[in-house]
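Possible regression after last week's pipeline update?

I re-ran a chain I had predicted before the update to compare outputs. Posting the input and the new output here so someone can diff against the archived version. Not blocking, just want to make sure nothing changed silently.
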Amino acid sequence: MLARLEYTGVQRGAPTVHTLTRPHGVAAWFPYTVARVRTGLHEGVLLGAPSEPTLGWCLDMADAHGGDLFKLTRLAPDGLRGRDPADARSTGRWIVARRSKTLGEALPLAGSFEDMVARLGRHTRRNIRRSRRQAAAAGLRFEVGTKAAPASLRALARKTEPTPNSRRLLARLEAYAEATGRPFRTVVRAPDGRIVSYLCGFFGEAATAYLLFQLNDSAWNELGPSLLHRSYLMEWLIETGCEELVFVHGCSGILSHACTQTMLDEFWVMRRTLSAYLRTGAIAALRPNSSLGRLARLALGDAFGTLARYGRAVLAV
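New output (post-update):
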């Protein structure tokens, strides 16, 4: 979770990740920015004992920081896993909204590539074999340790679907991988030298590899460059003795079914201030279907419910 938070901070251009240590755990967070402008929202994770009351932990961290708007994530306690709770509650000066979601991010790797493919679903196996046959017929080759030139990365990013990546973001992610001390980069290249797909990540501890980002040339979409490249990556990682591939921020596509599912609790912690209400409302309106937007709507629902109850009480008097 901390690696995911650091990666998110890199994406948002946050200069540093702050930490707060308590006997029951550690909180880490960074200021959320848009176009390098601070929004007043802080995004963080709670790395504490599952038995610790989360509400108190959230408010302890928020009070210690002095901010008024936080989005916090923690592993759901075992007793809540498999459920999908979503609620909000008021407590003194704060409103705390909570929702849970399932994230597939860790892919256990088998002892051989053949065993790994056998673990996957029939549809996934068929797609991998088909794309690798087509890649061999087209003369595509897999390369390890190739760092693409910035100009090539920018050109490839513009062709990546559905969301292109900015030059600034790519530079930050490449620098983050380099700063780990154990980066890896792999490329699927066409016979004429053009890059079809590019992957960047790093090796962590305990035979674990972290995949930071992937860029694919949409001109090769019929071949399925994302799954093709990930199949080559899995094969190479298994050969190096790696036992787990972690997709930072979760795995999308058909490989997600083979990932270990993790239940997360997300919290929206909002101080009862006008600025916090306004910022929460803006996020709910501008990003309604995002994780942030859903939490913001939950928090606002509780706030409006409190106002309605107060209004009824005044009218009753």
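Follow-up from reviewer: compared with the archived run. The two ends are 50 Å apart (CA to CA). Marking as no regression found.
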